[in-house]
Amino acid sequence: MSAGPERHGTRLRPGPLSFIFDGRRYTGQAGDTAASALLASGVRLLGRSVKYRRARGLFSAGFEEPNALLTVGVRPSVIPNVPASQLVLSEGMVLRSQNRWPTLGFDLASLLQAGGGFFGAGFYYKTFIWPSWRTYEPLVRHLAGLGEAPRACQLPPVAIEHLHCDVLIAGAGPAGLAAARAAARAGARVVLCESEPACGGELEFEPGMIEGRSAAAWVAMTLAELATLGARVLVSTTVVTDDSGEFIAHAEPGGLPGRNTVYHIRPHAMVMAAGAIERPIVFCNNDRPGVMLLGAAERYLARYGAQVGQEAVLFANHDRVYAAAQRLLAGGLRVRAIVDTRAADAPGTDSEVQRLRESLVRSGVECLSAHAVIGAEGGRAVRAARIAPLAGAGARTGRRISCDTILVSGGWSPALNAGLHGSDARRFAPAVGAFVAGSQTDWRRYAGSANGHFDLAAVLQDGHGAGARAAAHAGARGSAGAHPQGSGDAPPRLAPFARSPATGPAEKRQFIDLQNDVTVADLRTALAEGFIDIEHVKRYTTLGIGTEQGRSSTVVGGAILAELKGETLAAVGTSRSRPPYHPVTMQSIAGFHVGAAVKVARRTPLHDWHATHGGMLEPMGLWMRPRYYLASGANPFDAAVAEARRVRAHGGIADGSTLGKLEIAGPDAAAFLDFLYLSKASTIRVGRSKYMVNLREDGCVLDDGLVLRLAHDRFIATTSSGHGTHMLAHFEYYRATDWAGHRVSVTDVTEAWAAIVVAGPHSRAALSQVLGAPWQGRLSQLAHMDFADGQFGGQDLRVLRASFSGELAVELHCRPAMAVPLWEALICAGLEPYGLEALDILRLEKGYLVSSELNGQTTPLDLGMESLVRQGNPCLGRELLDRPAFHEASRPRLVGLRAADGRAQFLAGAQLTTEAAPAQPCGYVTSSAYSPTLGEWLGLALVARDCVSERALLTARDPLRGSDTPVRVVSAVHFDPSSERMKT
Amino acid sequence: MSVAPAAARHYSALALLRARIAGPGYWRPLWTGRKLQPAYDVVVVGAGGHGLATAFHLARDHGIRRVAVLEKRLVGYGNVGRNTTIVRSNYLLPENHYFYEDSLRRWETLSRDLNYNVMYSPRGVVDLALTDDAFPALARRGNAMRLAGIDAELLDLVALERFAPELEPRRKRRFPIVGALLQRRGGTVRHDAVAWGYARAASARGVDIIEDCEVTGVRTAANAATGVETTRGYVQAERIVFATAGHTGTVGTMLGTALPIETHLLQAMVSEPIKPLINSVIVYVSPGNGETYICQSDRGGLVMGGHLDGFPSYTREGQWHRLEDVVQGAVELFPRIGGVKILRQWAGTNDMTMDGSPIMDRLRYDNVFVNAGWCYGGFKAIPASGAAFATFVATGTAPDLIRAYRLSRFATGHMLDEPGQGPFPVRL
Amino acid sequence: MTRIACPFCGPRELREFEFHKTLPTPGAQGAFARTYERVADPALSVEHWQHVAGCRAWLLVHRNPSTGVVFAVELAGEVMP
User: Fold this and answer.
1) Domain limits, chain B
2) Average pLDDT, stretch B210-221?
3) Which of A217, A594, A631, A645 would suit a FRET pair with A786, their CA atoms being 20 to 30 Å apart?
């Protein structure tokens, strides 16, 4: 399509741009939205409704757009459901209409609707019961769903910006600008958020005068002043929710994700000046393309020089329609008639309005009072409006005025909640026909239309006052100066009117919620079925649950419900809206935490070494740990078997730095640890360590580890890698509560010490070689569970003789900077690294426990620690361990398992059954692995005590993986039961 | 003495046709707001899923004629209409999986039983394993289910890719997916429909459903409860059932019994509707508070939830940073949805017990019953809970199915701690 | 505005803190009551929190769980549960 004449509008720039809509190329102008460019190109049909597939066009000029949602972009990375009214075009943009197949002009599913109204509220609940919902569901899913599902996403991570200010103002219309100026003049640091790409709100098209200037000039001047006062003005940015006093604002420039920002704003005071949203009046077929909000026509004209149609009928219940009509007329729209629901002799008629009316009549506009548009004619576009008097003859049939556009305005509903949490009191304002702010707090105020002000002078004064008071509350001491004086359109003098008369089947075509196809008939059905409360009506009919959350429909819906119930709107209320106020792109909410950065990764000091030496790193909690090394084998199984075999035969080194390490110090440290562990720490001699377990408050095992006594009053407690954070908090908790006032401190030293495990028969030789002469004597004197502190390369080194593999082994605790040199020296001395898989084989051969056994469900009695329990240390959790259930025969007991035939594989997670009860598990396999040393599969299991006897035969049942393996109960210590290897 | 309501209309395609011919007025209210009577055999407090289902079964299965459900606000206004609609029975502990399996079987036929389409959609619930460590834990659970006759499948990456290609299981991720546990019969149910369907069915059997009627106290005499004080006056009751979810702790306070319950917020959120993308329920738990469960409603919205907000609250206002956690998980799972928008966020108040399993027992008095502590699992439990609890209330003996949910289990040590988390709803 | 006034760090945002548990009835004796019982009062909840993303102090917080208003914050050890 060729470019039309250049249009002029506040948001347009010279220069054409082309775009594609439903496969056809169109030309718009720089600054155009998809809506304005399509309007200017004469395109009316922009989509179909989701339920009835009725033809739909633009309805609004803002976020409240229910109809004209487009899918933007080229597959696979499309963005669905973008309101055409918000989408700023860029060259070559590809747009598609939604809810139609095969084409927008002809939609197959629309034939389904021939039954008209069959699919009304509650339809789905009453049928599709036989044979089952699942039979019909796929079809329903494909018919529903608005826009296309993206197959890919190419959006960059979104920046989160944290702002602190004195006063946050939401909305930069006249009230918001006046508030911002007052607050800034008073010395407050101001942040002003405006959803639209430009400030001014209605001043963009309402030709008011403020402080002796045109409204537009005043807006520009005020913005300039705000800039000099250091206020931050964020356009295309909507305050979407209040998170306990921190406000979340979302910027989506151009109405499309790509350059988004999320602001977390912490103000000392807040002014809500989000304006009001025009609401329609409901009449028959009020959903046809060409039926639009009156304000939308003005906006498209002023912002983009775009005409919404050729010939229009205006339908309203207030005085503002006359000024609007005059401006539209001047803009080139042929206004055929103004249909005013109010009686001509309504009291208080403004003489200015009277003059306006007379002048419109002289221009050929028919002005009808006490009339209503009762219907729109036309299918894919409005062809005529049907007009009828509200009383007397002709009220039922009316007469026809041909037109292609019906502009409707039923008043304005303040955007009160703006998705904000909390139920700030609201009150019904009859003059507004909607709810306004019911209360103000010092730190959160409302301004402008939210307070029921629709007269420019009052709005400016109210905004100024709110800004000044907010600044004062925030501690600004300066003077806000005088409030701006201004005058604009006359007050609306609105007489609430929600829908035109209609009866019977006609109500099925009176649309309240356009996006969800909710009609007056649906409300009637809901009431008949006992859904009386507005919240019930919302859920039952889907009124107001669309992408715009019923921005333009909830008040009208409430009013019509009130009419049907014979109550007042004040009593009926409107359904509660939920945050966010505007839909927020998920990529924005995720912020930086996408892809590899979704969660922080903890790395040991040896991380880079592993990564560059074939260490297959995998997450363990937030840590990254090497699972195996490629040099040992091509797959995890082969590699782990080779590494484990090598450790037993020769030796190896492993990175143990992820172990949690807590330093407990102070005169009461020993007593404190006695409280936190099942066995006593106070009996540990200085220079010795001990394997200990912690109980949870309820008597189950929480964690295990070694406790090292560094000095009489100083210990290191190690925790398992996954529990480090939790155990720190646990220790700190009891230090701060039960042990408050005692002399003991808890310090997390996990990251102050790297840990290298050196294990295997040749480990001592290698270690001697690496650590050199000063250590040789000491190493040979270290008994099992002893440790020695010293130096290596001028840095602290602790050598702890402990073994988690059953081999002669030490843990080297060194400063992180020394980890790589020490590790590399050990490799030079002939030791090779082994990973987690091998570590798991080695510990399993020895029956040592890991999280598979310490799973939060097991007690020390289950795990064979009776002797520790019997010591009677009155530790945390000890008392509840005496509860009878923990001593029943059905409680589990830790055992070892081997395949009955000595060969078969059985896997962790298999359930164990006895011959007597083959379907009733008596336990399960907690861990299993192939042991290269013993040449067969080994397992650990928790088995009910009454099913455990030495050599008992059980079946490891693994229906998930298709195996039933006879297994035999054996000792949990599969290898070297007397532990000679590690003790000599 | 309650009066039988005007004959309810049977729902069917034929009835829809009749209604088209008969015009408005054909349909009847789903439940009747009859006048509150001065005395009842059973007063059920709370017209949520559990309260309504209990009342329905009391009337249908046990022939108890005078039953009232008293509701502070509206039928189905609490958690039954605020959850993420997931139903499943993939529990580890026998006490739980037999119970939830009973529930799942009832879900399968509930639409027919209630003559109300609750849209049970067995689209499969997928629990992802993110580390090789997590895989045996899933296998343990799945094998326990299978031996109990409950469907479960362990999916490796190939099988997972076949079942849910939209997940792109092989995609490189911070926490790579290694496999999954699938329960095909698990899925979703239209949540509001459950409340309405039960209310309709209960009402049709003579149960009085009284909205805007808050219970403020329990009147007792000689070691038994005699009735409840309400905002509409005193109501005498032979037996009293509390099914008040997040307000159960306060019921305990009212009766002078401290319960092992904390009330926490659990939020949920929904995206704008898009065409079908996610065809099952995906559960993703990653380290560092990363939990996201996500499915796509029949309307097309991506419905998501995650962890508790993390501290006791009755506000029903979810914290933004928890929304961030959930959405981060969702985008991590499905990077393609980065450009899709979140429409609404809301929260329910969950009665979290100290072992994560429910409490179905008497409370303080022989004729006061409490059905509570549903933690994350309340919605999916409704059909089994209603049937079993009604039997308990009617006969005075708890059926085997719910015996383990007794309150005394904390004192005896018979906790049902599915995740092994101990007596803390929010783990340190 | 929901902030918790840490006795060491001053008023800080909620997300810096982690809730641990609601306390049992004052004077509750024995491990069972301390482990399992919780006071459920919609107007006042007495809780232990930790300033995890700050000084790591353990705090005793008095809050209204129906409004989120924080009444008082003190160090956990100063008042024994």
Assistant:
1) 36-121+187-260+354-428, 122-186+263-353
2) 96
3) A645
Q: Which of A929, A926, A909, A957 is nearest to B139 (CA)?
A: A909
Report chain A's C-alpha Rg in angstroms.
38
Query: Could you tell me what percent of chain A has a pLDDT over 90?
Result: 88
Are residues A265 and A167 part of one domain? Answer: yes
Percent of chain B with pLDDT over 70: 98
pTM of the full predicted structure? 0.96
Instruction: Report whether CATH 3.30.2270.10 matches the domain C3-78.
Output: yes
Subunits with 3+ Cβ pairs within 8 Å of B are A, C
**Predicted complex ipTM:** 0.97
Are C50 and A729 an interchain contact pair (Cβ–Cβ within 8 Å)?
yes
pLDDT of residue B127: 98
Q: What is the mean pLDDT of residues A639-653?
A: 98
Cα A94 to Cα A587: distance, rounded to the nearest angstrom: 21
Question: With contact defined as beta carbons under 8 Å apart, do B310 and B322 qualify?
Answer: yes
Task: Return the half-sphere exposure (C-beta side, CA atoms, 13 A cut-off) of residue A656.
Answer: 28
- Measured distance CA(A130)–CA(A148) in Å, rounded: 30
Chain C residues within an 8 Å CB radius of A732: 50, 56, 58
Closest C-alpha among A239, A221, A237, A238 to residue A229 = A221
| Residue pairs between chains A and C whose CB atoms are closer than 8 Å | 52
| A139 close contact with B: CB closer than 8 A | no
CA angle B48, B50, B54 (to 5 degrees): 120
Superfamily covering domain B122-186+263-353: D-Amino Acid Oxidase, subunit A, domain 2 (3.30.9.10)
Question: What would you measure as the largest C-alpha separation in chain C, in angstroms?
Answer: 37
Angle between the A554-565 and A520-528 helix axes, to the nearest 10 degrees?
50
Total Cβ atoms within 10 A of residue A92: 11
Q: How far apart, in whole angstroms, are the C-alpha atoms of residue A564 and residue A526? A: 11
Reduced to 3 states (helix: H, G, I; strand: E, B; else coil), residue C31 is helix
- Subunit contact C40:B411, Cβ cutoff 8 A: no
Shortest CA gap C80–chain A (Å): 7
Set of chain C residues whose Cβ sits within 8 Å of the Cβ of B321: 15
Q: Give the residue-averaged pLDDT of A698-712.
A: 98
Mean pLDDT of A789-804: 94
Query: How far apart, in whole angstroms, are the C-alpha atoms of residue A869 and residue A700?
Result: 12
Instruction: Look up the CATH number of domain B36-121+187-260+354-428.
Output: 3.50.50.60
In angstroms, the CA B340 to CA B49 distance is 32
* Pairing mode, strands A660-665 and A745-748: antiparallel
Cα(B381)–Cα(B384) distance, rounded to whole angstroms? Answer: 6
State the CATH number of the domain containing residue A167. Answer: 3.50.50.60
A305 has a pLDDT exceeding 80: yes
Percent of chain B exceeding pLDDT 90 equals 88
DSSP assignment of A755-794 equals: EEEEESTTHHHHHHHHH-HHHHHHHHHPPTTBEEEEEETT
Distance from CA of B366 to the nearest CA of A (A): 25
> Are the beta carbons of A329 and A323 closer than 8 angstroms?
no
User: How many residue pairs bridge chain A and chain B with CB atoms within 8 Å of each other?
Assistant: 352
CB contact under 8 A, A697 and C35: yes
Q: What is the mean pLDDT of the segment spanning A652-675?
A: 98
Do both A238 and A167 map to the same domain?
yes
Q: What is the mean pLDDT of residues A424-428?
A: 82
Which residue in A698, A736, A879 is closest to C76 by CB distance?
Answer: A736
| A7-12 own/partner pairs: CB under 8 Å, 24+ apart | A7/A40, A7/A304, A7/A305, A7/A306, A8/A305, A9/A36, A9/A301, A9/A302, A9/A303, A9/A304, A9/A305, A9/A306, A10/A198, A10/A204, A10/A216, A10/A302, A10/A303, A11/A197, A11/A198, A11/A303, A11/A304, A12/A303, A12/A304, A12/A305
